[in-house]
Write a structure and sequence with these properties.
Number of strands of chain B: 9
Strand content of chain A: 15-25%
Shape of chain B: globular
Shape of chain A: elongated
Order of helices and strands of chain B: HEHEEHEEHHHEHEHEEH
Order of helices and strands of chain A: HEEEEEEEEEEEEEHHHHHHHHHHHH
Number of helices of chain B: 9
Helix content of chain B: 25-40%
Number of helices of chain A: 13
Number of domains of chain A: 2
Largest sheet of chain B: 6 strands, mixed
Helix content of chain A: 40-55%
Oligomer: heterodimer
Chain lengths: ~475, ~250
């Protein structure tokens, strides 16, 4: 084994690991430290009546968050454009005013939630009572807003009487439909370091253990990987470049197809689905294109990967090359294609004037996990394909079903609530949603989504490698 | 080449121990999932076993040129495939100490849509050469193959002789520790055959261990020190070339 080269590779791998760890932490820190919370709201059932000048509506809230960023209020405008303004005051039980916001009556939506952000967030200790009061200015009967109230929580349990809202000092028969939006601190930002350091130490220990074994001349995975990299590194590069050269060899537009393909698909889907789903989705073109680019990477890589053994049969029968290399190179050449397809995605972001957030760098993590997942699936299907040629046709059907089960062109909200838990088990859903949060929302996804991505990737990768390893010696008998 | 007593002190390069290769043949080749499930349920799958090799043992020492003879279907190609790592034996083991250059069916790693230049790198990579090595030997490969100006033409426009010549040049540019030769000396025209024969001799005299398969007994006698005779998958004789060849010819 080339000791110097091996050391260099290991050091580089660990450097990349820490770079990624730091990068993720730097970008995702706000989401790692604070969880966005929404205080429970009641189901709107009745209105308080017009709130005119001189009237005061108050409501006490028990909140569990470390800072309040805003309130979301279910108002009614009686379907007319009202003049005047509404003032919202947040104070504590002792009467100290914590925040104050005034909004034009015209800016409220009818029979829907309107979000009012605070100029500066209120910092509070975890359990606290906040009193919210609403007054108006310039609102007269016939030209005033109302707020909804309800007597049941969203889950259907009734509200206790003493927590009802009051109108001019006397209790009404319901609770205001107002959400407090804010953040709750959680210990994940500390846990993160524990996890990443733990993983690092574990990997380091494993490497040292293998290293000592390698010195004694014993075979182990570390040595195997290095031998592969040094001996078959060139073959790997040659096969990837061959895939690329042959793909565009006889096409006049060549590489341009990599850009054009997702754009054209997006254009078609945009025309077809925009009237159906556009209003439910923020930045529909970017939403669509993200889904398309990610899904076509998946389907292209798996379709190419699964035939890699059968189509290289003549070679496999004659020369010994580790068989992993065939599906692996197919996935990597699709990855390059996918990275090219990100260019039109960024172009569309430019054209639709969507901001480029720092959270885009989190895509690195997402793509890394995605590639692992795809390699796993490819290895599984390659194995199946080698023994049963009709796997290919079966896969065509499965990938189509899978496409419809993934929110590529429709919003997740059309899925019935009862099955959403099962629906979200789809690994593709996890990877694509992760990407959309980074690209469109501009924030880091919740920590649990990182876990989901890692789990889906490692589960399929381990399964794929295990199955492939188990059957690879028998491939040749079926080619 | 070493004398016989010197030879037996050389380290073992290839060691085949009780190698048995058993193929399982379904009565009908099943290659679809549907067929498999249907036949499995009906219990229609019957397997026949066929032993291509039975309990074959021999060893090849460093610097030796060992011949491998036998009738068609005796298992010569199977044992070569096992040695080069393509097949795994059902029972027994083959240990190979050193890098193997397989010269089984030349040119199988070529891509017909790519030109000669690209194919030299692709095929070289398949044989496990490094990039630097290929770059330094590039001219030598092109010269030896006599391809000349056609090196930039896609391989689908080559004649079969040109392809074979290019393949041979790539395969023999390296000085491998173990060379496996499966009747490749019939490449190209007479002139090129002579050239390639010389190249082979050159490799063999340079300390490379060679496993040589041929139906041409005269060639075996000329080149090999020891010979393995396989007969219906069994090791019939293994030893001094002349003795084995005499016995083989008396059959």
């Amino acid at each position: 084994m080339d000791v110097k080269g091996a050391k260099k590779v290991l050091v580089r791998a660990f450097a990349i690991y820490w770079a990624l760890v730091l990068l993720i932490y730097a970008v995702a820190y706000p989401q790692f430290r604070y969880a966005e919370v929404n205080s429970k709201s009641v189901t709107p059932s009745s209105v308080i009546d017009e709130i005119t000048d001189g009237e005061v509506v108050t409501q006490e809230f028990e909140i569990r968050m470390n800072r309040i960023r805003g309130v979301s209020l279910f108002a009614g405008t009686y379907d007319r454009v009202n003049t005047g303004s509404m003032r919202i005051v947040l104070s504590n039980r002792e009467g100290t005013v914590l925040a104050e916001e005034t909004r034009d009556a015209a800016s409220f939506k009818n029979n829907a939630y309107t979000y009012i952000g605070l100029k500066s967030p209120i910092i509070c200790s975890e359990m606290e009572s906040i009193v919210l009061s609403i007054t108006t200015d310039g609102c007269t009967p016939g030209n005033a807003l109302t707020v909804y109230s309800g007597v049941e929580w969203a889950e259907g349990t009734p509200v206790e009487n003493e927590r009802y809202a009051s109108l001019n000092g006397s209790y009404t028969i319901g609770r205001l439909c107002i959400d407090m939006v804010g953040d709750l601190e959680r210990p994940f930002y500390i846990l993160y370091w524990v996890i990443v350091t733990g993983v690092f130490l574990l990997a380091l220990l494993l490497c040292l253990y293998w290293w000592s074994k390698a010195k004694k001349g014993m075979n182990n995975p570390l040595v195997a990987v290095f031998t592969l990299m040094t001996r078959y590194g060139l073959l790997f590069r040659q096969l990837v470049s061959r895939d690329f050269k042959t793909k565009y060899k006889r096409s006049s537009l060549g590489l341009v197809w990599s850009f054009l393909n997702p754009l054209l698909t997006m254009a078609v889907q945009y025309v077809v689905f925009s009237t159906l789903f556009k209003s439910d989705i923020k930045n529909f073109p970017v939403y669509l294109l993200t889904g398309i680019v990610f899904f076509s990477f998946f389907s292209e890589a798996v379709t190419l990967g699964m035939t890699s053994i059968t189509s290289n049969a003549s070679l496999i029968k004659k020369v010994y090359v580790p068989k992993y290399i065939y599906p692996f190179t197919r996935v990597i050449s699709s990855l390059i294609n996918f990275l090219l397809a990100l260019v039109p995605l960024f172009l569309v972001m430019l054209v639709t004037a969507s901001p480029f957030h720092l959270s885009l760098v989190l895509l690195l993590f997402d793509i890394l996990c995605f590639v692992g997942f795809i390699i796993g699936i490819s290895l599984l299907l390659t194995t199946a394909m080698t023994f049963f040629q009709d796997t290919q046709f079966l896969w065509n059907v499965i990938s189509m079903i899978w496409m419809y089960l993934t929110p590529l062109f429709y919003p997740e909200s059309i899925i019935p609530r009862q099955i959403i838990g099962v629906y979200r088990l789809n690994p593709l859903y996890q990877f694509i949603t992760f990407a959309r949060i980074c690209i469109i929302d501009g924030i880091s996804p919740e920590p649990v989504m990182y876990l989901n991505c890692i789990l889906s990737a490692s589960l399929f990768l381990v399964l794929g490698v295990w199955v492939f390893r188990k059957y690879q010696d028998r491939f040749i008998l079926y080619l | 080449m070493y004398t016989e007593s010197e030879q037996s002190n050389q380290p073992v390069m290839i060691e085949a121990k009780n190698v048995t290769m058993r193929y399982r043949m379904a009565n009908d080749k099943i290659n679809s999932l549907k067929e498999f499930v249907v036949k499995k349920i009906r219990k229609e799958i019957k397997y026949n076993y066929f032993d291509a090799l039975t309990n074959v043992s021999f060893e090849v020492r460093k610097g030796e040129v060992v011949g491998l003879i036998g009738r068609n279907g005796a298992g010569k190609s199977t044992i070569l495939k096992i040695i080069s790592g393509i097949l795994k034996p059902t029972e027994g083991s083959v240990s190979v100490y050193g890098n193997v250059a397989p010269m089984l069916e030349l040119g199988s790693g070529f891509d017909m849509d790519m030109n000669g230049h690209e194919n030299i790198f692709l095929n070289g990579a398949i044989l496990g050469y490094s990039e630097d090595f290929l770059k330094s030997k590039y001219d030598e490969i092109v010269d030896f193959s006599e391809i000349g100006q056609f090196i930039d033409v896609p391989l689908r426009n080559y004649s079969s002789g040109m392809i074979a010549r290019l393949a041979f040049s790539i395969a023999t540019v390296i000085k491998p520790e173990i060379l496996i030769v499966d009747e490749v000396l019939s490449v190209g025209d007479i002139e090129f055959q002579q050239k390639s024969f010389n190249r082979m001799m050159e490799l063999m005299s340079g300390g490379t261990t060679v496993l040589f398969v041929s139906h041409d007994i005269e060639q075996i006698r000329k080149m090999c020190s020891r010979t393995v005779w396989l007969d219906h998958g069994r090791l019939r004789l293994f030893g001094n070339t002349d003795e084995v060849c005499d016995a083989y010819e008396q059959m």
